[in-house]
Design a protein that fits this description.
- It is a single chain.
- By secondary structure, the chain is of the alpha/beta class.
- The chain is built from 15 helices and 13 strands.
- It has helices spanning 28-39, 46-52, 81-88, 103-112, 116-119, 134-138, 141-155, 160-165, 210-221, 243-249, 256-281, 317-320, 346-353, 370-375, 443-456; strands at 56-62, 91-97, 170-175, 189-190, 226-231, 288-294, 321-327, 335-337, 341-342, 379-384, 398-405, 408-413, 424-427.
Length: 461
């Protein structure tokens, strides 16, 4: 395929040891604070948490990663032995979805368990004043004020780290993080202090994993359950893989851009292996629930190295679909499930596993409850403009709403932002790359699915 992706073919997963990541970060400050936090008396009922032994939680989030681009999903070239092994040991949902194909709102949905129009973080960047260039804007008071406003939305709803804290958990943020300081999401510890993508947090994976290792080791010594948010900016550009990996992929494609992206995926896979090896070495594997999801998809344009159509920022599966994995040996039976599920399901799933009742109004289901997964009729989402229009009106930046019900997918454009758009209907089982719009010949089905979509969220403009 032109974009470097491949149609699904089954291959047996294999294992391979990951390499130790190099480099260091400035960590003395937060490590000292962590030790102090564990040494002093906490308001959290630690003794109760230890008595019932809730699992540790490791959430792995890849960034700009197509659903096709794993060995276990059938890619013929990309090597992902550690994720393949994780998938073989997991409850593996091969048809997972994120509700939106843009990084910031997608990550906000993972940590809140809510759709973008519910938590109100629907854009990557706040509205840009007319006539202001990008560099001017990012240095402006308007940009900082908009970022602060978006971060305040995250504080207005329960988040996964804040609810886990009630159970005695310590939590650590690393990698991609948009909402200013890590504490705005409820993390007790973290790396990001306020830059747009994540400042020091972005050293994780590409330079080192040591801060994650140190946090887990200290939390374990203190007898505290822990939650780690591992969201490296990988395989997200810049696509700068090690030469040892790039050399493997150069002969397999005519595009150096595609080769670099493929090598980035394998590099990310290696870092996952390092985390899993650390759990093994510390005897923590059986006590840790590992979850995996991608924040949005990506197909590489072979000519430019940027994202190709029908991937990132689009309403198509190339931007929205992701495998979702859940592993805890002895607690979660490995199996593969083709039922459509959503990243908004992760918060209720992880909270239930930790013995915490999810907020009653969360739209997701517990993925470990097979009956609840089967009972749901559809999964939903919406895609928005990169820059916000009106931060107090989520519908102002809406471009498309969509749903997946069984094998059928409906895409409905928002007339005020997509005036030339048309309703699209695809049968994903027969047409997984959404090439044949069946809306004209399936009018009755379109009406039925449109009613479901409107019952989920019907914005008015």
């Amino acid at each position: 395929m032109k974009d470097g992706s491949s149609r699904t073919e089954r291959r047996r997963p294999v294992r391979r040891d990951g390499r130790e990541a190099g480099g260091t970060v400035r960590r003395a400050g937060w490590l000292a604070a962590l030790a102090l936090a564990m040494a002093v008396t906490s308001a959290v009922p630690v003794a109760a948490a230890v008595r019932t032994a809730p699992p540790n939680l490791l959430l792995i989030i890849s960034d700009d990663h197509a659903w096709t681009d794993y060995g276990f999903m059938g890619h013929p070239h990309i090597r992902t032995p550690r994720l393949d092994g994780l998938a073989a040991e997991s409850l593996c949902f091969t048809r997972g979805y994120v509700p939106t194909s843009l990084c910031n709102p997608s990550l906000a949905s993972i940590i809140t368990g809510r759709f973008p129009h519910q938590h109100r973080i629907v854009c990557n960047d706040p509205p840009r004043p007319a006539g202001m260039t990008g560099p001017e804007y990012y240095a402006s008071p308007e940009f900082r004020a908009g970022r602060e406003r978006l971060a305040s939305f995250l504080e207005a709803v329960p988040t996964l780290p804040r609810r886990l804290r009630e159970r005695g958990y310590l939590s650590f943020q690393s990698g991609k993080w948009w909402q200013n300081d890590f504490s705005r999401g409820g993390f007790t510890h973290g790396m990001t202090r306020g830059e747009r993508h994540g400042d020091e947090g972005l050293e994780i994976g590409r330079k080192t994993l040591r801060p994650v290792f140190d946090f887990i080791a200290e939390a374990t010594r203190a007898g505290r359950p822990w939650f780690v948010w591992y969201a490296p900016m990988m395989p997200h550009d810049p696509h700068t893989p090690p030469e040892r990996l790039l050399a493997r992929y150069r002969p397999l494609t005519n595009s150096i851009h595609v080769a670099r992206y493929w090598a980035m995926v394998e590099w990310f896979d290696e870092t996952c292996g390092q985390l899993l090896d650390f759990l093994d070495e510390r005897g923590l594997t059986r006590d840790t629930l590992v979850a995996y999801v991608a924040d949005n998809g990506w197909f590489t344009d072979p000519d430019t190295g940027r994202f190709a159509p029908k991937s990132k920022r689009s309403p198509y599966d190339g931007g929205l679909r992701t495998p979702i994995l859940l592993r805890q040996p002895g607690r979660i039976a490995p199996r593969q499930d083709t039922t459509p599920v959503s990243s908004v399901d992760l918060m209720p799933t992880l909270l239930r596993a930790a013995g915490v009742s999810p907020p009653a109004d969360l739209p997701g289901v517990n993925l470990l409850d097979r009956r609840a997964v089967r009972a749901r009729r559809a999964v939903f989402g919406a895609c928005f403009a990169h820059d916000g229009a009106d931060l107090d009106d989520p519908a102002s930046g809406l471009r498309w709403r969509w749903l997946v019900a069984g094998e059928w997918k409906l895409i409905a454009p928002a007339a005020w932002n997509e005036p030339a758009g048309e309703v699209e209907l695809y049968h994903l089982g027969r047409d997984p790359f959404e090439t044949r719009n069946l809306a004209a010949t399936e009018a009755r089905r379109v009406r039925q699915l449109q009613r479901q979509l409107d019952a989920w969220w019907r914005p008015r403009r």
